[in-house]
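Input structure tokens:
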């Protein structure tokens, strides 16, 4: 059987991944507290934080070019602010400048290699889009190891990367872990179902697709029509 991940669903996976590169605004309060610790000089960091927040506001309204300008200013005022590099990378990723994003994530990690922010996860996404699936797996694994804010999505995306490398058993393990964290995530059921079908486990795969459909996924029923009849 042709690897299903090389066909239509590849576009669905990449769209899902791209939607995850923007900072989780529900965690903004936590990040702002971390920012107060991360910026090096109080008087200077306040101005850097102002530009950082302006950049975040522009990302919310999808003004990614404007956000990059503000992050540039934040970095100019405080070159040790890892969050500004991280979010500038997010903005570049939204503009599909994945190589530019990769450079920013590298810098964020260089400044704070053990941070639980989204830098490893986001860098894994950038590598995924650049088809460096093995490199992406390493970064998603690091995000999981650090118990980052993105651990659920790191399992999900690591499973996707393994699927593109045809490591379907490894992918199933990751999707199963994602489901344990959030049993209402239809994406993980779809991906696990497709991985099982690629291994010839049609019954189990189709059950996963059916579960995804129950959870509201329209794509699940397309795959059921194509692979479960």
């Amino acid at each position: 059987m042709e690897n299903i991940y090389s066909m239509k669903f590849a576009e669905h996976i990449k769209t899902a991944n791209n939607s995850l590169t923007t900072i989780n605004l529900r965690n903004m309060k936590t990040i702002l507290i971390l920012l107060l610790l991360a910026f090096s000089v109080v008087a200077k960091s306040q101005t850097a934080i102002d530009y950082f927040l302006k950049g975040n506001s522009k990302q919310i309204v999808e003004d990614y070019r404007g956000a990059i300008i503000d992050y540039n200013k934040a970095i100019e005022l405080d070159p040790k602010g890892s969050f500004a590099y991280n979010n500038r990378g997010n903005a570049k990723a939204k503009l599909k400048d994945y190589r530019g994003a990769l450079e920013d994530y590298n810098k964020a990690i260089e400044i704070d290699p053990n941070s639980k922010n989204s830098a490893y996860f986001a860098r894994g996404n950038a590598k995924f889009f650049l088809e460096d699936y093995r490199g992406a797996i390493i970064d998603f694994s690091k995000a999981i190891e650090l118990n980052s804010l993105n651990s659920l999505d790191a399992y999900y995306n690591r499973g996707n990367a393994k699927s593109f490398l045809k490591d379907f058993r490894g992918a199933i393990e990751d999707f199963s872990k994602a489901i344990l964290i959030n049993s209402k995530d239809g994406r993980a059921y779809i991906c696990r179902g497709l991985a099982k079908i690629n291994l010839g486990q049609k019954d189990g795969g189709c059950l996963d697709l059916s579960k995804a459909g129950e959870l509201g996924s329209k794509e699940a029923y397309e795959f059921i029509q194509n692979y479960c009849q």
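The domain at 21-143 is CATH 1.25.40.10 (Serine Threonine Protein Phosphatase 5, Tetratricopeptide repeat). The chain has two domains: 1-20+150-229, 21-143.
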